[in-house]
Amino acid sequence: VRMGRSVVELFYDVVSPYSWLGFEVLCRYQHIWNIDLRFRPAFLAGVMQATGNKPPATLPKRGEYMMKDIKRMAKYYQVPLQISKDDFQRIISISNLKAMRFITAAGMTQPQYLEPLSREFWISFWSQHEDISQTEKILAIARQAGLSSEFAQKLLEMTSSPAVKDRLKETTEEAIKYGAFGMPAVVVHVNGEPQLFFGSDRVELLGSIIGE
């Protein structure tokens, strides 16, 4: 019999479609498996740069496969993720730094908003194909997630503060220390030992490791 709840840290970025899939599956299973799920918003570009990784779609065959794979997974997990060829260019051309700082600021002040807020960013970027680098769009997403306009305004101001910038940087560095090279990076703590899982398709394995 397992003692206590296993801590599961989810390092994610809203420009990563696989992060959204992994996020939804872990959100659904957190109560079934009684895991202590911790959302760790991080900066994917920072992880890629530090580890010398490249966007998967830079390899045409892999890009082709990813399109099919994400469509299949979205259908299977019933996540309203719509992907098209243009999205690979969109990921590169739209800056998500402000969005990830905004989510980080929410996590530092009112962590209960992390789940709905992150989800709304994914919906905006991946279901509605919107530009999440725009201030107005960020505020609209916050409204959708149930944040008051005062609170959203406060978070927006926080995005330019050293505290928030440093927190996002530190979380990203922490993911790298665990061995992350992309997103999502899921770290399960078992008997004080951190175990890293990459991607959204290792949930069964994760479950077996925590005795579920």
Automatic annotation (TrEMBL):
<dbReference type="Pfam" id="PF01323">
    <property type="entry name" value="DSBA"/>
</dbReference>
<dbReference type="GO" id="GO:0004364">
    <property type="term" value="F:glutathione transferase activity"/>
</dbReference>
<keyword id="KW-0808">Transferase</keyword>
<dbReference type="GO" id="GO:0006749">
    <property type="term" value="P:glutathione metabolic process"/>
</dbReference>
<dbReference type="GO" id="GO:0005777">
    <property type="term" value="C:peroxisome"/>
</dbReference>
<dbReference type="InterPro" id="IPR044088">
    <property type="entry name" value="GSTK"/>
</dbReference>
<dbReference type="InterPro" id="IPR014440">
    <property type="entry name" value="HCCAis_GSTk"/>
</dbReference>
<dbReference type="InterPro" id="IPR036249">
    <property type="entry name" value="Thioredoxin-like_sf"/>
</dbReference>
<comment type="similarity">
    <text>Belongs to the GST superfamily. Kappa family.</text>
</comment>
<dbReference type="GO" id="GO:0004602">
    <property type="term" value="F:glutathione peroxidase activity"/>
</dbReference>
<feature type="active site" description="Nucleophile">
    <location>
        <position position="16"/>
    </location>
</feature>
<dbReference type="GO" id="GO:0005739">
    <property type="term" value="C:mitochondrion"/>
</dbReference>
<protein>
    <recommendedName>
        <fullName>Glutathione S-transferase kappa 1</fullName>
        <ecNumber>2.5.1.18</ecNumber>
    </recommendedName>
</protein>
<dbReference type="InterPro" id="IPR001853">
    <property type="entry name" value="DSBA-like_thioredoxin_dom"/>
</dbReference>
<dbReference type="InterPro" id="IPR051924">
    <property type="entry name" value="GST_Kappa/NadH"/>
</dbReference>
<feature type="domain" description="DSBA-like thioredoxin">
    <location>
        <begin position="7"/>
        <end position="208"/>
    </location>
</feature>
